Amino acid sequence: MPKLCIFIADGLRIYMKIRTMEDKLRIRLLEFMAAKGLSVNSLSKVIGVQTRTLNNQVKTSTSISAGTLLKILFHYKDLSAEWLLRGVGSMYIKESERDIYETLTGQIRDDNVEFLRDMIRRQQREIDGLYDRIAELKGEQKEPKRA
Fold first, then answer.
1. Is it the case that residue 1 has pLDDT exceeding 50?
2. Domain assignment of residue 25, given as a range
3. Distances from the Cα of 4 to the Cαs of 24, 25, 63, 113, 120, in angstroms?
């Protein structure tokens, strides 16, 4: 049986039946907005989404788009994606975790292009080797069997 949740945001009461994981995500988003003192209007301005669109995604059964979620996570770096999406852990990322994340993502950006080029070269060599092996096997198959 779905639970009935009463949530106060923007001075309004929202009655929502929690049926799906997305409903749970929506509740967590509303919790975050309340914790930050954000209205739908103010959040929409910060993340660059039309107020009407965000209002529909937050307060109705309209799906919350991946784009909206990414924009929220981009603008609120202290918000835990793990908590928002899956409900695991705490709402906010610890400063030490955020520092590690920023360090790793900076290194990834710097090294990413060269790493990907090397991977492509290795994969191309492997593909070329597989094509050679296929040609060998086709050649063996055409030879008549000798008794």
1. no
2. 3-93
3. 12, 15, 19, 49, 52
pLDDT, one tens digit per residue, over 31-54 is 899 888 899 999 999 999 999 999
**18, 74: one domain:** yes
Residue 138 reports pLDDT greater than 70 = yes
Indicate the number of domains in the chain: 2
Q: pLDDT for 81-97, tens place per residue?
A: 989 998 888 888 876 66
Residue 33's alpha-carbon distances to 29, 30, 39, 120, in angstroms, are: 6, 5, 7, 43
Nearest-5° Cα angle at 91, 88 to 92: 120
- Same domain, yes or no: 83 and 117: no
Q: How far apart are CA 69 and CA 85, in angstroms?
A: 9
- Judge if 108 and 140 occupy the same domain: yes
- Cα 51 to Cα 30, 44, 95, 114: the distances in Å are 15, 5, 31, 41
